[in-house]
């Protein structure tokens, strides 16, 4: 007699969140949430959506209003001039006021939207500054932001990045060393599979060693930073491994779409884009 053996289910069931600082750039920032909603997404995230640490009140209102019909799940603190290569103010000696200001603005947005995850980009190494002093400042900033986040039940995430030589967090271990030093339960690792793969990190080791420290995951294929299927990464495979290892959070879709966002989303059935 032959029995059917139940095979473990293929794939994963982690929920997705559309990163609207990189997707739907065909339309202005304030129209992107509506475009994402029309494409079936219910959850969104953004890099800092304003041109400075202290946006005008009307700009914050317009941003919050634009989120009609979707939930804001993640927001980067102000990271400086990203287009010019700046990658965060957490360790930037001399820009402490901007970091503090953006924290206040982000918490105000959290209050109005329910957003409970903030990406604190660490910042590049600075000419003429002692890296140890930058790390000391980062510890002070992260501690302060972690306290503020804890008061509303939110987390901070620390992200290793590729493509930025002067940015010191390149691997999961680099970020986890900062987390260990800080010892704060609500400061966690942002595992962007694209950045980690480009930096040569071992994604299997990421899953086996670091899953309990992960607060957020983002995806893009590598090389290229485009949609899944355009490169060599087994993105679905790693997401399944992360889920099997206990990760239950969101997966941020953070790739440069080719040739355009709607066409690029062919890999993701509409029924998997949103949550009931
Ligand atoms: O700068 C980048 O590439 C990021 O992912 C920022 O969050």
TrEMBL record:
- Can you tell me where the transmembrane regions are? none
Task: Identify the residues that the record assigns to the Xylose isomerase-like TIM barrel domain, covering every copy.
Answer: 34-270
One Pfam family recorded for the sequence: AP_endonuc_2
Active site (UniProt): 159 (proton donor/acceptor), 254 (proton donor/acceptor)
> Coiled coil: present as a keyword of the record?
no
The terms under GO molecular function for this entry are: hydroxypyruvate isomerase activity
- Which UniProt keywords are given for this protein, alphabetically ordered? Isomerase, Pyruvate
The name on file for this protein is Hydroxypyruvate isomerase
Species annotation: Amycolatopsis mediterranei (strain U-32)
* Lineage of the organism: Bacteria, Bacillati, Actinomycetota, Actinomycetes, Pseudonocardiales
Question: Gene for this protein?
Answer: gip
């Amino acid at each position: 007699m032959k029995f059917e053996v139940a095979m473990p289910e293929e794939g994963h069931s982690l929920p997705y969140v559309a990163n609207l600082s990189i997707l739907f750039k065909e339309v202005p920032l304030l129209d992107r949430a509506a475009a994402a909603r029309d494409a079936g997404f219910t959850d969104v995230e953004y890099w800092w959506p304003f041109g400075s640490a202290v946006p005008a009140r009307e700009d914050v209102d317009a941003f919050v209003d634009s989120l009609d019909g979707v939930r804001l799940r993640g927001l980067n603190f102000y990271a400086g001039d990203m287009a010019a290569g700046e990658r965060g103010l957490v360790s930037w000696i001399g820009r402490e006021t901007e970091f503090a200001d953006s924290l206040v603005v982000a918490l105000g947005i959290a209050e109005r939207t329910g957003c409970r995850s903030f990406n604190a980009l660490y910042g590049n190494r600075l000419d003429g500054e002692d890296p140890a002093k930058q790390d000391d400042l980062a510890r002070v900033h992260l501690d302060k932001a972690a306290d503020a986040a804890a008061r509303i039940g939110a987390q901070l995430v620390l992200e290793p990045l590729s493509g930025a030589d002067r940015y010191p967090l390149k691997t999961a271990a680099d970020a986890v060393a900062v987390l260990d030093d800080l010892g704060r339960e609500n400061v966690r690792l942002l595992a962007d599979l694209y950045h980690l793969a480009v930096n040569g990190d071992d994604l299997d080791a990421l899953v086996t060693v670091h899953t309990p420290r992960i607060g957020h995951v983002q995806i893009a294929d590598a090389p290229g930073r485009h949609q899944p299927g355009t490169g060599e990464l087994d993105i679905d495979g790693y997401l399944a491994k992360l889920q099997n290892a206990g990760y239950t959070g969101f997966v941020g879709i953070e790739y440069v779409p080719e040739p355009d966002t709607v066409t690029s989303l062919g890999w993701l059935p509409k029924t998997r884009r949103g949550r009931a």
